[in-house]
Fold each of these.
Amino acid sequence: MGNPKNLCKPGKKAEDIRPTIIPSGILVNPLKLRDVRNLLQKHYGDSWKNLAHLRYFHAVLNHLDEDELRLLEEMGVEENDTVEDLCEVQEEGENLRI
């Protein structure tokens, strides 16, 4: 304990490590972003953008709104459509298990 030790395999040096660069961020489906925005508005009201603990969501949703709406229009989805409008109705079967 207290003695320095090498973390590398025998014969390897720390200078030999060449880590791969991982791009930051991920692409998020615009429909999910719309749902998040709608949930924030429903839960906190229209003033959710002014709440300090929701700044992250404001930053994410603020610059993506225009792209989101454009993509939704291309997909033929209206801004006020609900999830129920986008899903097919399934008949309940006798073997339905939850």
Amino acid sequence: MVSKTFKIELEGVNDWITTEGAEGKLKRIAGACGLRVLSLQPLDEQEDPDASMQARLIDWIRDQGGTSSVGDVVKAFGFRSAEDAFQMMRRLTDSGAGCWLSLPLEAAGVPLAVVELFDSGRSVLSGLQTASGAPQETGVI
């Protein structure tokens, strides 16, 4: 499934129409168009863009069940390369939000590297090999 990320700036047109409750209004508008809002957060203009992207990435991975591969992140966020997505995910794990896991595949070959959030509420991959940093043997997928 293809998703897009937009930056939308809102302001009230008069004193009676305000931006209070804008999140709910935007979700209802998207729903009326047959779209689902995956993540919606007010952005602080002074905020670090990397921190904003990391927060969106954490929300998205949490919505995916707490785990995600580099390839999934490339598709969902439109990174130019797998290496860019890999670096963003590495910053996420370096910050302590999650860890790298090596997921064995059905077919023989290199295991799939995924990030699992520490607060995902479940660990479907518990018991699998956990790498302290990025997976050394798998590289970028």
Amino acid sequence: MSDWHNKLAALNLKNSIGVAAAEFSATDVVIRDMGGIFKAMTRKKDGGLVEGIFAVVGCVGDLTFPPVTFPRAKEASKNLLLQQASISGYGSQEFMKAYDFVAEMDDKFATAILTTPITQFAASSGPIDEEGGMSLTASSRYFTKSKDPLSQHERRAIPPDVDPYGALGRLETTRAAYCTDNVVKYLKIAGSGSKYATQQDTRTTLTCIRLVSRDPSLFRPREIVQLKFAVHAFRKFSPEAGPSFTVKLVLRSVVFLDGTIADRIVALERRTLKRKCEDAKKDKTRDQKRQRRGGNPLADVDYDAETDSGAETDDTVRGVERMQLDGERR
């Protein structure tokens, strides 16, 4: 994890946006009310404010990525289905610094909002991955909803790899649509002269110069990725508790870095499955032999068929009957 953090810092990726969360101070973040949503903003070189995009490297735990199928499209339209990923740092120093930065954002938002309570997001209480330690979870909805019609400036075309069947597009309305805040970029590093662009070999010197799209369906648990996120506070209202704000990490992009760990796990699972199949086959053979031993002993005994001449058979039967009667008289 630390190696990839340092490698990415050394690369000059011309189309990369965002700053490493491990190297950014929460004191440099400005909180702004964007009309019901508070956002963490950072300053541009000219002094203006822009939504802060923060990056962290980790190993994927759970993920829910596109494509969206027809059965799940309705869940997405109700914001029950999210584009979501959880990553763990396995104790790396850079990941823990990013984790601390994210935790500090709670206090930052609480100070900015003041009038209503803050519901802490998952990172503050620290969901713990049994193997990877502390983890961070970022997610994004598929639809932005508004009381007023959404403008064409806000709306975006749904990418084919997100909605290949048109299931989401059919559910869009003037007040619920795929907009700028719903866009998540699924990426990988590529470029001329980079062996890594075609092979998963972390020992190769990286000379990549740009990020390119990656099919979201290709991402797997235990891959090492760079996750980029924004930090927003969403207003909620409860009749019992009143108004409150929930602070969450909003997924902005996922950059594939290394699949070595995932490949090893897949190979191990295949070997385990193969052993289970072989053991099951042996058990089945053993059971079949046991069933044969305990089966009907007459099942495999062959007897001569009855002859065409029934007289001999009848005489034989009568002879046997006489023998039995004689024995009884004695």
Amino acid sequence: MEVFIHTRLRNVRKRTVAIFLAAICSISAGIPRSLHSQNTAPITISFYSSETNINNFKSLKFEFDTYLSQFGEYKFQPFNNRDTFETYLSGHKSCAVLLSSWHFARIRETYHLKPIFVGVRNQQSSQKTVIVAKESGVTLDSVKNVQIASASSIEYTKNMLKELLPDASAADQAKILTVPKELDALMSLGFGMAKAAVTTAHSLEQLQAMNPALYKSLNVLAESKESLLLIVAISEDCGDQGQNISNLLQEMPAQPTGKKNLLMLGLDNWKPIDASDLLKLEK
């Protein structure tokens, strides 16, 4: 009798295990192939902007990773150094890259990048860079001798100075004070921390509303041509994932968390690249 009971128990266990395994296989068969592929390495979206001074890269990465995790195995990789960023692109596969239009024009062919979106801020997708000074004695000829505040990288700031100063070689002598935000660059003129600032026309408009007295005391010494805001580019060898990334980034402004992440980049929307944008990128 005892042997009979043990035999029955073994048979029950075997049937239970068989049913459990069959259920697992059935569930697995119903999972879309895209989810099975999530065990592969995450798809990388890289970010570096010479025009934007991000204060907290850890927070930026966390917020973007959290948002992107809704759509699959994606990884957001921000950089605060151009050389490190380009070294990463050389040795790793990044399906999408977010970078300044100035930088994009310089590396697009090297990394086979195709632009798909441009950032939008206050319904504008382009901006002008300006050199401003508070003291009447500071001119375009003498600005190379004074402290210049900027929220952009030193490399980008000096390149803008080369474009705007009468003597391009004078940009190499410029003394740059790097500050966290563009409004800080303008406010530094009021506090006497700098004698000139390289910023955007958009920031000047913000200053007019925030500090009318300081705004009226500033002189615009030079103004650049319009340049596009942040560019989203897809690697040409990314395959079908390029379209997937395009779709999920395009949806960002429509979702509260996506909108919040765009604001961290100083934007409020994306717009598809059109023919006129391509012409600006070629200049």
